[in-house]
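task queued by scheduler; priority normal; single chain, no ligands, no partner chains; default sampling; output format set to structure tokens
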Amino acid sequence: MRIEMPTGKRGACGVKMMGCFLVAMMLVSVPVFAQLNEDAVEFDEHLGEIVPGDIVLIDQDGNEVLLADLVDKPTLMSMVYFECPGICTPLLNEVADILGKSRLDPTKQPFQLFSVSFEPKDTPEMARTKAENYLKLVGRTLPPDTWRFFTADQENVDKLTAALGFKYKRAGKEYTHPGGISILSPERKIVRYLYGLSFLPFDFEMGVYEAASGTVRPTTARLLQFCFSYDPEGRTYVFNLARVVAVVMLTSVAFFIAFLIYTTRTRRGKEAGPDGR
């Protein structure tokens, strides 16, 4: 003899089972994404947030200066370290190239660039040498304070990187870190991020104009940053297959469960009949 469950109970049970399965998948996915996020060396966007003005930087002459006194115009900031064997050099080369190609005149549309070392052992002398070398690459005459290089102690490095959402970690004698630029308004508000090692002059110029007005823009390259991560051995960005596959699998499961719930409810409605019984 076969005992059949009433249609309504059978449908409700199925929905509950699928709901439990969905919860289980979410519980499994949480540590997966948490681990991916914990291990990632990338920007954690803080768009619209104000970078603290009490951060102390050391300029190329060895003077301590407050960030609040430095940022009085649109400011494009790159986090680097001066003996980096990886992406810092191509990043700074790109900044020099874009600065040389840009139609922006700092005397008419004020802006400035800061390259700040997150290695506390770097010195003002190293910063001064970097500044001299990279300004030669720009290829056009600029006011002397257009592009400046800074160092800082560990406490202030931590405050600045945390404020910018710049995540990095030590790898032996070197560091793994993302490549990109944070753009600040004159009020030190983060208005945009430029990711990677290659930028369009248009994005660079628009970043300056947006910073001047304090306009916050979402980062359209955020998806690219998610799909690519920095490979410290190859010293380049590579496709992050594990991260993308995890997202695709979890998304597929979510759609599948949603489809099952929909079909179960539809079938139950048909079996109940027009009178709802």
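post-processing summary
- The radius of gyration is 26 Å.
- Residues 118 and 157 are 6 Å apart (CA to CA).
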